[in-house]
Specification:
The structure holds two protein chains of two kinds.
Chain A (H helix, E strand, L loop, with lengths): L3 E10 L4 H10 L4 E4 L6 E5 L12 H9 L3 E9 L3 E2 L1
Antiparallel strand pairs in A: 1-3, 1-4, 2-3
Chain B lengths: L38 H6 L8 E6 L19 E2 L19 H10 L16 E6 L8 H8 L8 E4 L1 E2 L12 H17 L7 E5 L7 E5 L16 H11 L13 E2 L5 E2 L10 H9 L7 E9 L3 E3 L4 E8 L11 E13 L5 E6 L5 E5 L12 E8 L9 E9 L7 E13 L15 H28 L1
Parallel strand pairs in B: 1-3, 1-4, 2-3
Antiparallel strand pairs in B: 6-7, 8-9, 10-18, 11-18, 12-17, 13-16, 13-18, 14-15, 14-17
Helix pairs in contact in B: 3-4, 5-6
The chains are: A alpha+beta, B alpha+beta.
Chain lengths: 85, 463
């Protein structure tokens, strides 16, 4: 199936808590951030300026995030289908 | 225990109640009388959904609906894709996004209020987690949804799944699996009570539909007693109380496993029986701790013949003598890596030492994958529930189709999950015809045999 990339990112920090995550999100132009309860230092970044579904990855945003020494990993979320039953 | 439906005097004035065949099946819409969840008996015994909140992960809940307004838990409702704490359904002109509202109604619709139908667990609360009204789902949205407010939401119900085109092997992705494991482990750690039952009933009348209904229990103060059940207790209760009822399939016959539990490839252990479940749950003792053992593994590539079968065997002692030995099975996983010229033509069966054969993978005509295959895919069966895993397990892999195909199996690892002591020995038996009675008898006999064997060995060794 052809991958679809969304405007949601998984971002894991090396250290630091929500204030740092919020600061990072603001620095890189993300519209919001939320702590993921099941991953230490794992956050959900979302960017209203990026298309909600596109065929190509937003490399620019991903590389910017990953270059930051405070950030361990940034994964742009792929979209997939779900069917109501 | 079968009683005529009219003996159960459930009088509901909700206009659609009589159409809810899965609650009380009187043969409406060409259905089979009696083929239902036996909820009426649980209601009669005073069990409802009071005190329970079910998170309906769907496209939102119409909290203005008169049958749902009084039991909507707004505080626990949310939409993670648009960060909206008031996730009202985004109705389309063809009402496509009313799915969540209907599911919520099946679970929690108010009873006896002259409106619509009745929820299977009426008096419960529902939280709307809106996520299905977007063109695409993402792992982070699924994971965030299923880990939303676990201190408030007791059950997470999902009436949706991967695109069912007969080709995909999709499922929960990495973050969602992590969220699930985190939830269960945290709950297990806190010995909190979290469980979820999913029942699938297919109705063959003109109103044919596929339903998922979540039935769950926790400390029912309304019924005047407190349950102390773990997730695994719920699974054992499901196995022991589900009924064959009138479920029948020509191709897949009902069979018994090595300890006499009746199962069917299509219907599992049968239809949930809410009445029997609450009665047994009332005096249930938490089952012993579960252990995990790698029963064995084959890592050398083995060619799958175009005709006939590749037959592999693994003989295991189920980690006997080690800390993590398993004696009474619950789940068994066959972790398999296999590639072939056409994945959909693969057929995989596994047979336990006690002779119970499970179909792990049957033919999927529309799956023409020839690249990805299955990579460390954890196929799973519960058909060997309660069996002794020690002995030789047989795996059969072949192709089902007229066109010749080729393939190679690169790995088969057997994972055994279960208890070390008999799970039912401490349970109180009330019905001597029940599966519990039968299983307990088996366990006692086996424990006795093994004790005799041990003493004989010690006497012989002394001499």
């Amino acid at each position: 199936e052809i991958a679809v990339y969304t405007n949601h990112f998984l971002v894991e920090l090396h250290r630091g808590g929500e204030p740092e995550a919020k600061q990072l999100a603001a620095e890189y132009g993300f519209s919001g951030v939320r702590k993921l309860p099941f991953i230490d230092a794992g956050y959900h970044f979302y960017h209203n300026g990026i298309s909600r579904a596109r065929r190509r990855r937003s490399l620019q945003h991903k590389l910017h995030l990953e270059k930051d020494p405070r950030i361990k990993k940034a994964v742009q979320q792929e979209g997939f289908g779900r069917k109501k039953r | 225990g079968y009683r005529e439906i009219n003996e159960i005097d459930i009088n509901m004035n909700d206009p659609l109640f009589t159409k809810q065949w899965y609650l009380i099946n009187t043969g409406q819409a060409d259905g089979t009388p009696g083929l239902d969840l036996n909820v009426a008996e649980a209601w009669e015994l005073g069990y409802t959904g009071k005190g329970v909140t079910i998170g309906i992960m769907d496209d939102g809940i119409d909290y203005l609906h008169p049958d749902l307004a009084s039991n909507y838990n707004a505080k626990a409702s949310y939409d993670f894709s648009s960060n909206d704490p008031y996730p009202y359904p985004r109705y389309t002109d063809d009402w496509f996004n009313s799915h969540g509202t209907r599911c919520a109604g099946e679970v929690s619709a108010a009873a006896n209020n002259n409106i619509c139908g009745v929820g299977v667990a009426y008096n419960s609360k529902v939280a709307g987690i809106r996520m299905l009204d977007q063109p695409f789902m993402t792992d982070i949205i699924e994971a965030s949804s299923i880990s939303h407010m676990p201190q408030v939401i007791d059950i997470y119900s999902a009436s949706w799944g991967p695109t069912d085109n007969g080709k995909t092997v999709d499922g929960p992705r990495e973050l969602t699996l992590q969220a699930m494991a985190d939830g269960v482990n945290k709950v297990m750690f806190l010995l909190n009570k979290l469980g979820k039952m999913t029942v699938l009933l297919t109705h063959t009348g003109d109103g044919a539909q596929i339903l998922f209904t979540a039935l769950y229990m926790e400390d029912f103060s309304e019924a005047g007693f407190i349950l102390d059940l773990t997730w695994r207790d719920m699974q054992h209760l499901t196995v022991l109380t589900s009924k064959r009822n009138q479920l029948h399939d020509e191709v897949h016959q009902w069979r018994r496993n090595g300890v006499g539990l009746e199962f069917n490839h299509l219907f599992g252990y049968g239809v949930l029986d809410a009445g029997a479940m609450v009665k047994m749950a009332k005096d249930w003792k938490t089952v012993p701790e579960r252990f995990h053992c790698v029963g064995g593994s084959i890592q050398e590539p083995e060619k799958i013949p175009s005709s006939g079968k590749l037959v592999l065997t693994l003989t295991t002692d189920a980690c006997e003598g080690k800390e993590n030995f398993v004696r009474y099975l619950e789940h068994v996983q066959a972790v398999i890596t296999v590639n072939s010229t056409r994945r959909g033509d693969l057929n995989i069966n596994m047979t336990s030492p006690m002779g119970t054969k499970s179909i792990l993978l049957s033919r999927r005509p529309r799956d023409d994958d020839s690249k990805v295959g299955f990579d460390k895919w954890p196929f799973m069966t519960t058909h060997t529930w309660g069996e002794d895993p020690r002995g030789t397990w047989v795996l059969e892999v072949g192709f089902v189709d007229s066109m010749p195909q080729r393939g190679v199996l690169k790995e088969w690892t057997l994972m055994l999950h279960g208890t070390q002591s008999a799970p039912y020995i401490d349970q109180i038996v009330r019905d001597y015809q029940s599966k519990l009675a039968m299983s307990k008898k088996e366990e006692l006999e086996e424990e006795l045999d093994e004790a005799v064997e041990r003493s004989l060995k010690s006497i012989l060794s002394k001499n």
